[in-house]
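4.2 Preliminary Data

To establish feasibility before requesting continued support, the project team ran the inverse folding procedure on a target of 152 residues. The structure was first converted into the token representation described in Section 3, and no sequence information of any kind was made available to the design step. The complete token record follows.
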């Protein structure tokens, strides 16, 4: 379902956006990235994109390009904007950018327990290709990551 997307734009993230991005990050992730993680991604020249409407940050995505592969490092949609098609929109945008840079595959990691994100990735054509044991911190110990790949 895609609603109210008339005024939404996706654009490159700027240092001035970091404060708003971090607020959303802390709202939606139990183990959020630090401000330094975002600042380092910008400095490193990763593909850092935000999705916004006037006065509202809807979400963001960060992707690292290597010669033939793209790695989506994070994707987040603010709680009030979830389940309305925005995550899919940002994901398809990142995939299009990866294709435009001649990537052959897009990879990402997702927590074993994150069923909604895994569903989005599966519906977009990603396949579970590997498991990283104990990759993520969790409330009780560690949690596995599913490595997912989309062949372009
Ligand atoms: C995961 C996340 C990015 C998805 O974005 P979203 O805007 O909520 O999802 P969308 O509305 O674009 O949904 C896209 C598809 O995924 C499926 N989906 C998304 N959330 C779902 C849920 N809670 N239950 C079932 N299906 C779900 C929908 O079926 C939808 O498919 P459709 O287009 O065929 O209807 C977003 O919910 C989020 O930021 N969550 C918290 C942070 C997070 O987990 N990020 C991912 C880290 S890997």
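Position-by-position output of the design step:
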């Amino acid at each position: 379902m895609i609603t109210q997307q008339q005024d939404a734009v996706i654009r490159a993230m700027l240092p001035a956006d970091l404060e708003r991005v971090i607020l959303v990050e802390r709202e939606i992730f139990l183990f959020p990235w630090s401000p330094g993680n975002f600042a380092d991604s910008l400095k490193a020249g990763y593909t850092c994109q935000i999705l916004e409407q006037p006065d509202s940050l809807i979400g963001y995505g960060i992707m690292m390009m290597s010669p033939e592969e793209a790695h989506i490092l994070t994707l987040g949609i603010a709680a009030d904007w979830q389940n309305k098609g925005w995550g899919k929109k940002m994901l398809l945008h990142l995939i299009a950018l990866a294709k435009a840079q001649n990537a052959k595959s897009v990879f990402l990691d997702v927590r074993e327990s994150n069923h909604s994100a895994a569903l989005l990735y599966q519906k977009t054509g990603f396949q579970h290709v590997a498991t990283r044991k104990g990759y993520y911190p969790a409330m009780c110990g560690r949690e596995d990551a599913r490595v997912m790949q989309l062949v372009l």
